[in-house]
Specification:
Blueprint (H helix, E strand, L loop, with lengths): L8 E4 L5 E4 L17 H15 L4 E5 L6 H14 L4 E5 L2 H13 L5 E3 L10 E5 H7 L9 E5 L9 H8 L4 E6 L16 E4 L3 H6 L6 E4 L12 E2 L2 E2 L1 H8 L2 H15 L4 E4 L3 H13 L4 E4 L5 H12 L5 E4 L14 E4 L6 H9 L11 E5 L3 H5 L28 E2 L5 E3 L13 H10 L1 H16 L3 H11 L3 H13 L1
Parallel strand pairs: 3-8, 3-9, 4-6, 4-7, 5-6, 7-8, 10-17, 13-15, 13-16, 14-15, 16-17
Antiparallel strand pairs: 1-2, 10-19, 11-12, 18-19
Helix pairs in contact: 1-2, 2-3, 4-5, 13-14, 15-16
This protein binds zinc ion (ZN).
The site of zinc ion has 8 residues, from loops.
Amino acid sequence: MLAGIADCCYVQSGAGVLGRLGVLGRSRLHPTNGMNLRDYQQQAIRDIREAFRTGSRTALLQLPTGGGKTVIFSEVTRLANQRGHAVLILVHRRELIDQASDKLSRIGVDHGIICSGYKPKPSKVQVASVQTLARRLKLQPFKPRLIIIDEAHHAVPGNTYGKVLNYWPDALWLGVTATPCRLDGRGMGQMFQTLIRGPSVQDLTARGHLSTARFFAPPITADLSKLHSRAGDFIQSEASEALNRSTITGDVITHYQRHADGLPAVAFCCDTKHAEDVAASFRSAGITAQTLLGSTKACHRSALVQDFAHGKLQVLVTVDVVSEGFDCPAVACAILLRPTKSEALYLQQVGRVLRPSVNKSHAVVLDHVRNISRHGFPDDERDWTLNDREKRGSKGGPPAPAVRMCPDCFAAFKPAPVCPECGHEFQADRTIAQADGELVELQRRNKRRQVGKARTLDQLLAVAKERGYKPGWAYRLHAARRHN
Ligand SMILES: [Zn+2]
């Protein structure tokens, strides 16, 4: 049995009064009705309990996409509710309302939903769309003791979240997010006192809770170095103008067919026009594709997501709707067509494809805008804090990401002497080999020559067989050469 959370917890209210509060009680973490928590999820709940117990009024839980944050905050809600506390769960998308509501129902937590289109229901637990709630604040008879903020990196003092949160200044706040920094790179220290870190992407991948990914960064004909920035990110209208060209989109489709043909894919575009044009190009190539945008009506939106989940739709093209709260583990390919300086946005986008699923041996990321060079691999160690994010590579900031690109097949991988996709060997590594001895170098040169001489697919297949490589190596190399 796990120890009690905040059984004797002193929390300072806005007025400076100390009060005794047992928000999460002594309850067991394991509910009896089927939601088995993983060990790190139980640990996260213990850490949340400890943060409140030791005096924080506001805590932020960081957990990679796919780590099960809805499971964790639903359990926290159940525990607080069991103690008689009112809990408000704030979300910013309709899809997230349904996800939270489903999880709560599964563990037997009675709740209401505050969102346009849903009938209000009195309950001590409410799941609310932050936008709807902001309009109905004065109508609420309800006074939450704990406010849970899903995708908490959106919460900023001056925005709608700030307005709603400050309406109940005595409540405890628990934020949850995969990326504890604002999309403009600012830290979350203005909103939260304590940061609780869950396991890393690398940990979750090693435990089989996340899928591995193959990255490709095919070159494009647009010059992205000329893009200007506003509010910490590239101006997307400029990026759209540079990228929304039929030659570029044609290449995007070719690479999708080469590396991820038939896999359910999400393409992230710069703006609505770009998304619509990309979807149309996919359709003219005979690939079912539809846009999912902020303006897409709710009923059409859920139909699209259903079609996608059931394989009737191959490619969903979006601007930012799918970045968060889109829970479809089958999606196996991310097509990045929106250059961004936001590490958070990049991680949210790539995170969509890392959920494991049956029939998915790995995910594929096709990064046509070199976001990987800016932000690294999703499983790179990240030093999350509540402070502002330093620009990578800048003085005092985290180092620029270590990424190597293969000139033959455009794979992007963590620095290694040989491309893991096609076997291309890198020049710089030959110098090391020379230091190790002439023989090694000679063997490497012969190996390269053998690959260079093999021009046809059959010849490449023979080389693959001789070296014990998988036939896919030969197919990929052959396809990459044809494209050049
Ligand atoms: Zn390669």
